[in-house]
Amino acid sequence: MKFVKLILCSTILLSLMNCAELFQKDKKDNNDALFALLLNAGCTISDVSSPTSGRKIDFTACRGDANAALTASGFSSSSISLSGGLVGTGSTSTVYTNSSSLSSLGGDKKASIEIVYVLSQSDSSISAILPSTTNLSGPGFYISPTTVNKLTSNGSNSALTTPRVWSSSVSAEKILCLEVHQESGNAHVFGWESSCAAANRGTYQFEEDGVAADFGGDRIGLRINKATIKSITIYSANIGTSGSFQ
């Protein structure tokens, strides 16, 4: 009987050891898979030189899930998915850069971007805040299917004093070049209905000076409502050359 008990105990112990080894192997395999996924996550980033130096982030060429891809590419996000770009569904769908994204260092702040996007419905919109705080506060632009408005310090939007209107861009890919300069505590917001490389840098197609704004941030922020962001180019030097604010 003692011999049988010894064999039984040995069998149970061996089984437990095998289970423990299998568990450790599965855990290691899972960790290795997760590590490999994180290493491969990200979006394609390329340097640009026209009209000034900058970096283009192509959101149509991202690897991994949205959070991992954006984190690896230098962004924080909320309620964002990936499907042919960054897809947002409402006011809580946000993205902002994790580090300073100014086009001018020292003195008054300046920020410059090119954005390629698609608005999916008639009530779609994109708020491009530049420069932005991490809670998406700051001056910038409110993009709708037919125009672009200014954003003020309280988050509201209204028409620019020099506006730009176009036919509805719902479901069509569109590109804008946008820039904000801090001037005497207020914002000079302006831009072009084109790529930044094709813009006439000395003449703005839409603009307003003296916009009340909070310049507490140094990031680029996006609020994506029923829209897709295909790419964004963040410039490290100014685009606009008109006026005395350079």
Descriptive key words:
single chain; alpha+beta; 2 domains; 16 strands; about 250 residues; Jelly Rolls
What does this structure look like?
The protein has 246 residues and is of the alpha+beta class. The protein has two domains: 1-40; 41-235, Jelly Rolls (Sandwich), CATH 2.60.120. It is 19% helix and 41% strand. The chain has helices at 2-40, 66-72, and strands spanning 42-48, 54-63, 75-78, 80-82, 86-88, 94-97, 110-119, 125-132, 140-143, 148-151, 157-158, 173-183, 186-192, 206-212, 219-225, 227-235. The strands form two sheets. Strands 1, 2, 4, 5, 7, 12, 13, 14 and 16 form a nine-stranded antiparallel sheet that branches. Strands 3-6-15-8-9-10-11 form a seven-stranded antiparallel sheet. It is globular. The N and C termini lie far apart (96 Å).
Ordered list of secondary-structure elements with their pairings:
Elements lengths: L1 H39 L1 E7 L5 E10 L2 H7 L2 E4 L1 E3 L3 E3 L5 E4 L12 E10 L5 E8 L7 E4 L4 E4 L5 E2 L14 E11 L2 E7 L13 E7 L6 E7 L1 E9 L11
Keywords: Signal
Protein name: Lipoprotein
Sum this structure up briefly.
The chain has 246 residues and is an alpha+beta fold. The protein is built from 2 helices and 16 strands. Strands 1, 2, 4, 5, 7, 12, 13, 14 and 16 form a 9-stranded antiparallel beta sheet that branches. It has a 7-stranded antiparallel beta sheet with strand order 3-6-15-8-9-10-11.
